[in-house]
Design a protein that fits this description.
Blueprint (H helix, E strand, L loop, with lengths): L2 E4 L5 E4 L6 E3 L2 H9 L6 E4 L9 H4 L1 E2 L8 H6 L4 E5 L5 H7 L4 E5 L4 H14 L3 H22 L5 E8 L4 E2 L5 H8 L2 E3 L24 E5 L7 H9 L5 E5 L1 H5 L5 H14 L1
Parallel strand pairs: 3-4, 3-6, 4-5, 6-7, 8-10, 8-11, 11-12
Antiparallel strand pairs: 1-2, 8-9
Amino acid sequence: MVKTVIDQLGNVHYFEKTPQRIISLVPSQTELLYDLGLEETLLGITKFCVHPPHFKATKTIVGGTKNIKIDVIKALQPDIIICNKEENTKELVVELRKICTVWVTNVEDYYSNLQMIRDFGNVFNKRTEASNLIAKIEHKYSDFQLFIKEKSVKKVAYFIWAKPFMVAGKNTYINEMLKMNHFQNIYQEKESRYPEIELKKIRLEGDPDIVFLSSEPFPFTDEHAFEIGIFTHHSKTVFVDGEMFSWHGSRIVKAFDYFKQIHSKI
């Protein structure tokens, strides 16, 4: 019996059997596939797929999220390649479709994250594992909602890059995580999803109470914190684990506890 499944971009996929040779080009989704019990069928990953750590030694590295080794992927003879709208380019997806089925996710908030997990459970015949994971996430989410309920809203800027300085903007998973934490992103109305900003204008554009410096994709230092702080009006600078704010999938289970820790620091 042929299984018909639609991905988060509306692409229709037909599976005569459950995919058994998987390549993941998205670090957070590699972690999710592992947590769903798909370690044995996951063959290839990117150099940025650092969770779980032992995958570096047991899986084939096929390149980065945007610069991949097509010949290496072909040699693995995959029957499905997992991509993401934000992480991987449209041109790359088109090229990969010449090899096999390409499943593209589009996770922008808490609910589309749950949908992705359900989809993976369906595609890979891991419905029970997906349901159990979703139940765990929803329990953590309910608990966090009680925790955050009385917290006042604080204005924030979430930096992801320096020279040029770039921040998280609207229609991003990061922005949704900030809103969940009662953090008002001063740059969420910018046209770009990850806009470049001028530090000298930071007060005029919102004057944040808190400046978050993400651990990825750029390694911020105390020098960067000092440079940014010069242009703010007594804002508090906090170095944060970027994976907790930007990795969708199963990472959110750990993220809720991490968010509580962040609030204890501010």
